[in-house]
Amino acid sequence: MTDNTHKKQMASKKAVIDARIAKATEERGVLILLKGNGKGKSSSAFGTMARTLGHGKKCAVIQFIKGRVETGEYKFFKDHPLVDWHIMGHGFTWETQDKQQDIAAAQKAWQLAEQLLQDDSYAMLVFDEMSYMFKYDYLQVAPVVKAITARPKHQHVIITGRTMALPLQEIADTISVVNDEKHAFRLGVKAQAGIEF
Ligand code: ATP
Ligand code: MG
User: If you count DSSP H runs as helices and E runs as strands, how many of each does the chain have, helices first?
Assistant: First the structure.
């Protein structure tokens, strides 16, 4: 390709992109779903939260499932003046094997989520691993859809989890799928501090 052809191609590409940018004029809160079997959903959510915090805006995290250890992200963000971090689950479902206890924990987490979804002082809410609540029928999806739809106009919501309920996908603005092409675990690497938690 000659330099001239390249220049022409880039100019027309720029025109197409500029036209798309000119069309996207709305500013409002978005619902982002991060799903799939690969590694990177929760860490992407917390990375995006760091962006919002960098702009001096208040955020909250609700973790619907609690792991066994204090995570690096919790240790990093918990004392940040603009972050409220709530760990609501009491353990992995396959470890506790107590359905009534799981349902009670899910409902308590949802009550809090519902409050935050009415509070426009929060620029961003992260509902980490919320999708499992629907998968195991611990929460009904309809009231969640209703509360998310009625939230303050400029509030962003990010939900993570391997599978997502269809009604949430219908109202989402952005859905990203993290695929599992390779994972170090299958090569015999254990869960490591700073990578997995
Ligand atoms: P991360 O928190 O690292 O962004 P995630 O939120 O996408 O990961 P989860 O489904 O929440 O992943 O799983 C929690 C932990 O399990 C992660 O720390 C991750 O490294 C590990 N994990 C994720 N996907 C896989 C996989 N396909 N095989 C083995 N372990 C995995
Ligand atoms: Mg996760």
Answer: 8, 6
* Residue 39 in contact with ligand 1 by CB distance below 6 A: yes
Q: How far apart are CA 120 and CA 95, in angstroms?
A: 36
Instruction: Give the C-alpha separation, 164 to 171, whole Å.
Output: 12
In the chain, helix, strand, coil percent, each to 5? 45, 15, 40
- Reduced to 3 states (helix: H, G, I; strand: E, B; else coil), residue 28 is coil
Q: What is the distance in A from the centroid of ligand 1 to the CA of 24? A: 33
The model's pTM is 0.90
Indicate whether 81 belongs to any domain.
yes
Directed axis angle between helix 141-149 and helix 99-116, to 10°? 10
- Domain holding 33, by residue range, is 29-187
The pLDDT value recorded for residue 92 is: 59
Dump pLDDT digits (tens) for 32-55: 999 999 999 999 999 999 999 999
pLDDT score at 170:
98
Atom nearest to 46 CA in ligand 1: 4
Instruction: Report if residue 194 sits inside a domain.
Output: no
Burial of 33 (C-beta count, 10 Å sphere; 0-12/13-18/19+)? buried
